[in-house]
Amino acid sequence: MIATDVRLRAVLLTLFLVVMIAAMIQFWPASTPSTTAVVAAQPEQHDSQNNNANESQLKRHFDWAVTQLRTGHYQQAINGFRAVLEQSPAMPEAYINTGFAHIELKQYEQAMKSFQIAIDLRPSQVNAYWGLAVSLEGLCDIAGARGAMRTYIHLAPANDPFIVKANAALWEWEQVKQDGGYVCERSEDNSG
Question: S-S: 101 plus which of 12, 18, 77, 132, CB 3.0-4.6 Å?
């Protein structure tokens, strides 16, 4: 039982680290245009100078929240992404990062909701399915976690470096299905 608990924690930590590395790669300075593209999708403003100032402020808020997430200040990251979403409520990246912060705080229900919104906004957002799988596992919904991870594997490009880890997680969850011996140790969801 203790060995299973340690393995489960190790798998969750590995999954989280892989997702965080993927998020860091995705949002490294080269990703600024995708954030700008989401902002540009908002209703047009007639004053272009005002629009540029709003985009600049949005980018600063987003970058600050990403820094908070990367440095382990998860509640501050959530608050920062909320500020971003007040300005740009259709930005799936902000919902995804909010979801990962909630996972770190073991707030799986809120994480799941954030990933679902991101998927609703952009169904092809691959890393949202990964986060959804991890949050569903945290909620002891192994069948749902398997389904979300299968979607991740299906949507990810063939050369995706995280496919191996996704398949490993899926394999482990399939073993749970076959063994029927999964003991969920769901901790209390500290809502934030």
Answer: 77
pLDDT in tens, 120-163: 999 999 999 999 999 999 999 999 999 999 999 999 998 998 99
- CA quadruple 28, 29, 31, 35: dihedral positive or negative? positive
Instruction: State the Cα–Cα distance between residues 100 and 27, nearest whole angstrom.
Output: 14
CB 153 within 8 A of CB 163: yes
pLDDT digits (tens, 9 = 90+) for 71-105: 999 999 999 999 999 999 999 999 999 999 999 99
Residue 18, C-beta contacts closer than 8 angstroms, at least 6 positions apart: 130, 162, 165
Cβ contact 36:88 at 8 Å = no
Cα(105)–Cα(76) distance, integer angstroms: 12
- Say what the pTM is: 0.69
CATH of domain 2-38+55-179: 1.25.40.10
Beta-carbon contacts of residue 1 (< 8 Å; ≥ 6 apart): 183
